[in-house]
Amino acid sequence: MRYAVPLAEGKLTMHFGHCAQFALIDVDDATKTITKREDVTPPPHEPGLLPKWLGERNVTHIIAGGMGGRAQGLFAEQGIHVTVGASVAEPEELIAAHLAGTLTCGQNACDH
């Protein structure tokens, strides 16, 4: 599995489409442990670009604070599972909670 978490100053940012970087984090399917983290800078924001760009990087899961409905649909078309409503935290913390089934998610922080 490969997770993508949008970052600002090393933590989850609520502004998914306009984040400074993404943490791409590989997780071993069998042991559910993090095996690698790579922070990458996305291309300039353009509607509809990130689903394809992250799909090309083999992302299977996204944890976000908020994301518009259209974007969620485009990620689903790429086979990428999206979790929205996460709170600001370190990416590894969020992923560990997601894997354990304890990730608390509130309202989608995006209104478009």
Structure at a glance:
The chain has 112 residues and is α/β, with parallel strands linked by helices. Helices cover 24% and strands 26% of the residues.
Any overview of this molecule?
With 112 residues, the protein is α/β, with parallel strands linked by helices. The chain has a single domain, classed as Dinitrogenase iron-molybdenum cofactor biosynthesis domain (Nucleotidyltransferase, domain 5, 2-Layer Sandwich), CATH 3.30.420. The chain has helices at 49-56, 69-77, 91-100; strands at residues 2-8, 11-12, 21-27, 34-40, 61-63, 81-83. Strands 1, 2, 3, 4, 5 and 6 form a 6-stranded mixed sheet that branches. Strand 1 (2-8) and strand 2 (11-12) form a beta hairpin. The longest helix is centred in the last third of the chain and has 10 residues, at 91-100. It is globular. The N and C termini lie far apart (28 Å). The mean pLDDT is 92.
Keywords summarizing the entry:
112 residues, alpha/beta, Nucleotidyltransferase, domain 5, six-stranded mixed β-sheet, 6 strands, globular
- The number of helical segments is 3
Strand content: 25-35%
Global geometry = globular
What structural category arises from helix and sheet content? alpha/beta
The parts where pLDDT drops under 50 for at least 5 residues are: none
Q: What characterizes the major β-sheet?
A: 6 strands, mixed
Tally of individual domains: 1
**Secondary-structure element pattern, one letter each:** EEEEHEHEH
Total E-strand runs: 6
The helical percent reads 10-25%
What is the CA–CA distance across the termini?
Answer: 28 Å
CATH topology: Nucleotidyltransferase, domain 5
Specify the CATH class: Alpha Beta
